[in-house]
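Hey, quick one: can you model this chain's 3D structure?
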Amino acid sequence: MNLPGLPGLPGTPSDPPAIPQCSAKGCRADAVWVLAWNNPKLHTPERRKTWLACDEHREHLSKFLGVRGFLKDVVRLEDWEESTADG
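Sure thing. Here's the predicted structure for all 87 residues.
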């Protein structure tokens, strides 16, 4: 029996990629952008979930989240990492 998403079972990646990758379906390009979002029906106002995007998919993913009213911020990955490291 294959149970995807469980570590150690066939079909489950064992380790995340060393370099963050784009969240667009089927894309394995290096991420350049962080799209911070929040579903107000599910999350508290201060909570931020994130998707990563390459240059090619940034606009598409931003529009997807924006149309739903979820998109809060789009930040370069390096800036996001600096801001989260600072505290």
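One thing worth noting: Residues 1-9 have pLDDT under 50 and may be disordered.
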